[in-house]
Structure formats: C-alpha cells, structure tokens
Fold this protein.
Amino acid sequence: MDAKTLCLGALLRGEASGYEIKKAFEEGPFSHFHQASFGSIYPALNALNAEGLIAGRAQAQDKRPDKKLYAITAKGRNALIAALMAEPAPDAVRSDLLFILSFAHFLPPARVGHLIDQRIAWYREALDRMEDCACGMIASPGSSFVRGMGIAVYRAAADYLEAHRDELVAEISESATLVAE
C-alpha cells in the first residue's frame, strides 16, 4: 500500500500532524500492519494537499514553531475508499528472528534459547497490550475484527515458540555444524 493511502487512512481517524501519523505507524493502531517513515509521509502529505485530498492548517504552539495539522477532505475520503477497493497484496512476514533461526545450527544453543525466550516475552507483552485496550482505534466492526486477528496470530506464534523451543535447542546441541561460541 502506498504512503498516500496510508496517510489518508490515518487522517480518517481525525486531524493529525505528520509526526502524529508516523506515531500511529510506530506505536499506534497501525503499528502491526505497515511502517511509514518521515521520508515517505511528508512527500505524501504534500502530494495529497496539492491534489485537494487533504487540507492543512497551522496551529500555534508555545515556544515552538507552528505545528501543521492535516485533515482529510471529502475528495480524500472518496480517494481512500477507491484505494481500499483494490485487491490487497499478499501478506509478507519480515522477521530478523526467523532469518536468524533459519541458521540456528551455526549458533550456540544457549543463544538460540535466549532469542526465543525474548521473543516469547515480547509476544506476551504485546498480547497484554492488545487485549487491554483498543489502541486508540475508533470502535468499528472492522477494527475489532483486525484486533482479534492480531491477537490470534500473536498468541499462535508465542504458543508455537513455547512448544518447540526445547526441541530446536536440543537438535542444535547435537549438531556438528556449530561454529559460533
């Protein structure tokens, strides 16, 4: 999904600055779906503003430069809906941990066990946050569905790691290809 569509989606939740949009993709409700950098957000906001899909205004701040806030326009809302009608790309899982674990037989078993333990803790903490709040999302059937699917995926990943951690560590402990100590 392109940065312009991501920005329109974030602005459908309400007026926001470029910084606030980035936070929505780093820590907020969209953090599990996509990444958006300032290098993509600000050019997208400029293009959307030039196309009349959003409107910007300056908000004065104490002892700081004015903050630029953007709001989606009716034309922008229609453009977002049109973009949402496109077929989505296949889901892609990008994980440093999975890449590292695919070479687990080259690593010390204790390191592999530690990495898996850390990831289990990360999933469990994320699950606690996801189950305790709606993460600022506007309550809608779609957002509730997505939140539920996220909880199911994270729970399954944590359960898998817990169930198979010792099996992997035992297998690589017996492996003759260990090179790192």
